[in-house]
Amino acid sequence: MKNEGKSAQRPDNTAFTQQRLPAWQPILSAGIVIPGFLIIGLAFIGIGIGLFLTSQTIQVQEMDYTGVEKDSPCFRCTIPSNLNCTCEVTFSLSTLFTGPVFFYYGLSNYYQNFRRYGVSKDYNQLTGDTRYFKSRSPEEDCSPYSYDSNNNPIVPCGAIANSIFNDTFELYQIINGTKKQVPLDGRGISWWTDYNIKYRNPSPVNGSLAKAFDGTVKPINWPRPAYELDLTDPNNNGFLNQDFLVWMRRAALPQFRKLYRRITDGDYAAGLPAGNYSLTVHYNYPVLSFDGRKKVVFSNVSWMGGKNNFLGLAYLVVGSLCVVMSVVMLVVYAKFKFSDDDDA
Amino acid sequence: MGSLLSACRINVEKKKVEEERHLRANDREYNLSFMYANNAIKTSKYNVFTFLPLNLFEQFQRLANAYFVFLLILQLIPQISSLSWFTTVVPLLLVLSITLAKDLSDDITRHKNDKHVNNRKVEVLINGDEKWMNVQVGDIVKLENNEFVTADLLLLSSSEPLNLIYIETAELDGTLIKYTISILYISGEVRCEPPNNRLDKFTGTLTVRGETFALDNERILLRGCTLRNTEWCFGLVVFGGPDTKLMQNSGKSIFKRTSIDHLMNFLVMFIFGFLAFLCAILSIGNGIWEYQEGNSFITFLPRADGANASLSAFLTFWSYVIILNTVVPISLYVSVEILRLGNSYFIDWDCKMYHVKSNTPAQARTTTLNEELGQIKYIFSDKTGTLTQNIMTFNRCSINGKSYGKSSKGFTVSMIKKIDFSWNSLADSKFCFHDHKLVEAVKSGSPEVRAFFRLLALCHTVMAEEKTEGELFYQAQSPDEGALVTAARNFGFVFRSRTPETISLVEMGVPTTYELLAVLDFNNVRKRMSVIVRNPEGKLTLYCKGADTIIFERLHPLSSKLMEVTTEHLNEYAGEGLRTLALAYKDLDEDKFEEWKERHHEASTSLEDREAKLDAIYEEIEKDLLLLGASAVEDKLQDGVPQTIEQLAKADIKIWVLTGDKQETAENIGYSCNMLREEMKEIFIVASNTAEEVREELVNARKKMSPESGDEPPIEKSRFLGKKSQVVEDEKVNGEYGLVINGHSLAFALQKDMQLELLRTACMCQAVICCRVTPLQKAQVVELVKKHKKAVTLAIGDGANDVSMIKTAHIGVGISGQEGMQAVLSSDFSFAQFRYLQRLLLVHGRWSYLRMCKFLRYFFYKNFTFTFVHFWYAFFCGFSAQTVYDEWFITLYNLIYAALPVIGLSLFDQDVNDRWSFQYPQLYAPGQLNQYFSKMAFARILLHSCYSSLILFFVPWAAMCDTVRDDGKDIADYQSFALLAQTCLLIVVSVQLGLDTYYWTAVSQFFLWGSLSVYFAVTFTMYSNGMYLIFTSSFPFIGTARNSLNQPNIWLTIFLTTILCILPVVAKRFLFIQLKPTINDKVAPRKVPRRRISTRRSGYAFSHARGYGDLVTSGRFLRIPVKTRSALFPHTDTPVADSTPQTYRTIYEGAQSP
């Protein structure tokens, strides 16, 4: 009994309390570091070559149609008073542009990532919740595109929706001087989650989507209300319009491209054959005031996505540096190790 | 409530004016008129209603929390708010609620304790049983055996024969004895000091029927003790509840802060400035952007009315304050507390610092100083009880000019055998002595020898306990006394019992009773004690024992010859490291004594300056003494003291011993515990009587050690946080030196004009011994070093006289030993044996320091990296205070994703195990030099973070530029980019953490990979359909994880960023190990075959115990030169011998090079 009391205060002798937990101590020894660098270097070079070659196979046709230069085809459309201006950009492909071809529009110096721009929307509204058609949550985010001058609620509210890209394009292949329209497919160009979950149309009232928008007004810059965005396809209207969805997924950087259409159908399923093409641009979107640029991009993709040489080059450079570094380390290690031995 | 408040107020006012306490026994009415506090205590801080508001109020007084609130307010301003409110509220709530929960549980415990204590029953003389809380000042209470003491009581009587009682203090295991006043009385008036916190002092008087008695500490029974071995006792309540000394002592600790704390505060201030700087840059950028681009961008994004570029810039400044606030890591303080607490627990839990004999584990009494244990440069140690066991054995004596006892130099034939004390039936069988001549002298009846032992048997304050006939137990206040009384007992002068008026001896078998007339007690100033007794024949004699110098000053001229011989003997004893006392006596005149006694009574009942008056009275009678001889007792060194000192010295810690002993004793102890060594070039001894001589000796010593040192001390003036300080830099010395300085010289040396001289000289020496120092001087010495050296000091001691030193030093260590708990109570760390100090410093201290520094470095790294990415992004988003990451990531980053791994790192990491820490005390040096975390290290972290954040932003930027998914859809959108950037960041900081961890335990790895998995789990959850459908506006990132994390180029980017961030660090570390290895790199365990050891010179095997440490330190490739010293002790008995064996890289390359 006495003994129990005697060692009553003895601390527990466990690996944890005695700080003797089994452990492994990684050590930067030459045997690990130098081969490690070499292996990583070689692997990187391998990946880099792969990436670079892949990137090289991706075809890109890029055309700026802003019309800054006086001789560019769209120059005349840059005059603000020139409404409903159409211009034509021609280009030729020397080889087959392998399909599926993706048709992007690109903007630069365009700050979709500007904070106040970015918050200027109402997700609750965009899920089709009509409660938020008249009120906002939070109230001030959509400002100043929340209500029009008559205090009617704007739906969809906010700067992002209001500034939707509204140039439209038609692509023609010029075969022996005649224009053959290339069919552009605008279905499924947005994220599946955006189309199916994130955005929802309000439930149609009496079968009419337009009725659901009763009491609201269209965004100021829009020519037509949301429920009439696509006059050709009644299912591509409201918040579930593909172009709208693509636009609403705002870009991370001031220079970006967004998917406009895909060329997958008909004669062009295999790609755009070599030849001359003409792109008709319905020039509506003003960018020159803020020194922005507009372009169209035709591109195909690979397993690594769109064309981006950076990743491949970066891997190559880093890989090479690793190899060089491993040699340097070997030299240093050898020199200092042997000199130590000499001393001993 | 109101009445209670007013009562409190009156109480407070009362306290202010209370200068003397008057009370009458059992007169409640009279006592209540003074409004003394009753015996109810309240240690709890809150009640049900006040808890929330009070606690929150307290919490928001902390800067960190206030800062959170400031941020929150900023976030609520829509024009500024760049982040949702929850990014601040969630961490704030978490921090608040953790603290709230902790405070709540603490307070509930306190409430429970209070209630329990207040409702204890005690028998009150006038009312019968009462609850404790209803006991009033002036009540007489009856305590029974094993009961807790109710309040601070004045003892009145007890069941024990001599009105003694035995008590046990809660923390102390030994029993203490208290005297009581022998009259039981029902009425009486007490006048005493007002409530105070001095445990060792009490002054008051008791007046009963016109007779006045002096009251001192001996008669006071303090709350917090327990009655033992005493059937009952009566006590008069003097102080109740909050006025008791126990309560007065609680909660008034000085808050010590570590140097890392100071550095941290400085850095936080710097970071605030840095934050403002970053925000200023960005707001200027915003101004320019708004002016150049934003003006035109209003096509798509009109400004609010009246806004222009400068207003926008102003708002942007605050928006960026919100976004970049993570550079000021508020969670830092919480985490630091957690890890310090953890490391304190490791100290408490350490089996190797648990002393089995005394059942005492080590205890970290302060949990906020751990890392400073790894930075100690100076140790100030007491000697008795700290270096030594404080268990005394009577070894030598000099009686009437003749020396007895074994000498360490040699034995004469008569000394070989242990003396057989069987002739004395009352002898203590454990006592041993080796000189038969002394026994013969006693038996032959030599009067001087008999007087010598009679003195030892009479002049003391020991209590005897005789439970069964012939079995004596002595309860001594100090072990010296016990040893001397035991010696007298064995030589035939048995102290048998005492009453307040008599002392009963058995002199050579004859029972004799002496009348005890006065006890002139010992104290630190007097350094002597005397008793005045009347022997059965009626002769009055004063017996005195004390420090030799003191006694010699008071001797009658007749003794001068004897004094010379005795002095010689004393020097010899002291040279052997024994503690000496001189003994003298004096016959007294009856008339003179009567007259003296009257004045003595007068002095002893006075309330003011009682001690000074008593000292003067004592001084009068203690003169013209006749010398009897001297005694020498040995205080054995504790186990492992020389080894510990050797280890600590190897760790380049300077040890100063501050002792009250004679110079010779101290010197000898210095040698025997390996502080002073034969191979030291010189040991300076400063023992002079004038200031000038002292100065001269100090200067000479310094010149000898370092001929080129200038007259002016090398002072580095620095202003740190407004505090001006003079720092004396270290000076180079060739070789090792020691310094011994006596108390007299020290007094001169500590004067203002000579302080620095002392400091310079002393700090150049390896070991310093100050002898004959007073407690105040101890504190002064510590203060001197603390003030003028940029070094961390540690004071270690066991007795009340070390308290001031323990409190002064950066870290105070108390040894719980023979002298009570006072040192322990005022210490920061405590344990039972001096040798545990090496484990505390070399293992726990070093680990704590390492962990703290690693933690800070990593913590700053991870937060800077996190934040800087925002800075780079600003240049691409029009300086609009757009965050790079998802808001939820920002909220959870420090809270969940990166919290546990870093805690794991800072609780479990160790660079080398404890055994290796002992093998290489040199590993301690980086802590002393502040190498692991300094302003330089901080600057490096800043650069490293800068690099990492550049990679973390620009690699994803370049990789995502104009790219698309493999199905042609968008991937360069903001949400995907945010996800990519945050994933890169988290993986990079996690891998970096793994790289920083030296010691990969399952726990820390689990934390690391667990946190990463949690990140992915949480991310997928938050970006899932369900969360979006429920909380639409809170989780707008729906689908991002699914859509981008299935893309190979995303993963290739993550991989590339990780490699780019980590490999340079690996390469740099590897190259530094090769080119500029630190001590750590050298001793890091390696898996290198050991066989080459045998190819070394043949002598190596024998000198294995020498350790590699010496070889390491002598190697030319060491960064920090540490002086070579040879090991005197093998490390076989180090307390870590049972650690698991490891294979280590052998370090012998440099062995022959120097």
TrEMBL record, chain A:
Belongs to the CDC50/LEM3 family. This is Cell cycle control protein. GO terms for cellular component: endoplasmic reticulum; Golgi apparatus; plasma membrane. The chain crosses the membrane at residues 27-53, 313-334. InterPro entries: CDC50/LEM3_fam. Pfam families: CDC50. It is found in: Membrane. It comes from Cyprinus carpio. Keywords: Membrane, Transmembrane, Transmembrane helix. GO terms for biological process: phospholipid translocation.
UniProtKB/TrEMBL annotation, chain B:
GO terms for cellular component: plasma membrane; trans-Golgi network. InterPro entries: ATPase_P-typ_cyto_dom_N, ATPase_P-typ_P_site, ATPase_P-typ_TM_dom_sf, ATPase_P-typ_transduc_dom_A_sf, HAD-like_sf, HAD_sf, P-type_ATPase_IV, P-type_ATPase_N. Mg(2+) binds at residues 382, 384, 798, 802. ATP binds at residues 382-384, 481, 522, 545, 579, 659-661, 772, 778, 801-802. One of its GO terms (molecular function) is ATPase-coupled intramembrane lipid transporter activity. The active site is at 382 (4-aspartylphosphate intermediate). CDD domains: P-type_ATPase_APLT_Dnf-like. The chain crosses the membrane at residues 83-101, 266-289, 309-334, 855-876, 888-908, 941-959, 979-999, 1006-1030, 1050-1067. One of its GO terms (biological process) is phospholipid translocation. Its EC number is 7.6.2.1. Residues 24-89 form the P-type ATPase N-terminal domain. Residues 701-721 are annotated as: Disordered. It is a multi-pass membrane protein. Its cofactor is Mg(2+). It comes from the Eukaryota. It catalyses: ATP + H2O + phospholipidSide 1 = ADP + phosphate + phospholipidSide 2. Belongs to the cation transport ATPase (P-type) (TC 3.A.3) family. Type IV subfamily. PANTHER family: PHOSPHOLIPID-TRANSPORTING ATPASE, PROBABLE PHOSPHOLIPID-TRANSPORTING ATPASE. This is Phospholipid-transporting ATPase. It comes from Cyprinus carpio.
